[in-house]
mitogen-activated protein kinase kinase
Amino acid sequence: AEFRISDFEKLRVLGHGNGGTVYKVRHRRTAAVYALKVVHTDAALRCQVYREVDILRRVAESNHVVRFHAVVPTPSGDVALLLEHMDGGSLDALLRRRPFPEPAVAAIARQALLGLAELHSRNIVHRDIKPANLLINAAGEVKIADFGVGKVLRRSLDPCDSYVGTCAYMSPERFDPESHGGDYDPYAADVWSLGLAVLELHRGHFPLLPEGARPDWATLMVAICFGEAARAVTERAASGEFRGFIECCLQKESGKRWSVAELLGHPFVAGADGVESERALRDLLREDSDES
Ligand code: ATP
Ligand code: MG
């Protein structure tokens, strides 16, 4: 079906990003609720938006990637993406309230890995994995969002050519691709970002800097390239499995990092899909709604 912007009623703002605003909207006729990501574009940005659309179309059937329904034209020429509404919001908003207990972290890590597996198997790297781009719904489903900087890999393209993504979650080799002479592996870079995001859920703040610190480029670069990222896990009580998992993700040498497929077999996440996991995820949301 073709959608028009006048078919929708704006309910509220769900979030802001670099290029635009995400609204919760209701389709007037069917009363179905969606998220509408409106990106204020110029010609250059429009390219990026259509790349996101292209990627979302290619992963339309994925269970762990936010569902994409349509592009909705707007009078102003902005591009609006009609997306599945994730009613639990983003994990960065949730974790600001308190660190997550390990069973919830494990269940989230497992679902995010399933999402990454779906992407990687289609030769798509995300390049911007972080808590703000992991969304959750009331059913306890965790899905990957925001392909604004996702990129379809083509063999002919130098994967280092476009310098995008969020610096804080960038792997050491993305800061310094030269020293890795052509060995840059963008799939392994997604694994690093995922490891850091998962660690952040457990710590309750960005794990490589003191809580509340305002990172600048140089501080981040030093923390990521010269610090021992995996050691940050020891600052809060954690199981051996969790430590092991984080170590597998946060290997500084990309070649030593586990792949998504290998990580899905790691004991930390392998069993994290039972009743207990579902309860842990629902508890995150329940406490959240009690407080607000
Ligand atoms: P970019 O990182 O490329 O600038 P962005 O950050 O502007 O993109 P998103 O990450 O897609 O765009 O959305 C921004 C925020 O809006 C998210 O962090 C989340 O809080 C909220 N949001 C986005 N999509 C949805 C959705 N489908 N359901 C609920 N909330 C959403
Ligand atoms: Mg985002």
User: Anything to note?
Assistant: The mean pLDDT is 86. The longest strand covers residues 8-16. The beta strands are 8-16, 20-27, 33-39, 68-73, 79-84, 89-90, 124-125, 134-136, 142-144, 151-152. The chain is about 35% helix and 15% strand.
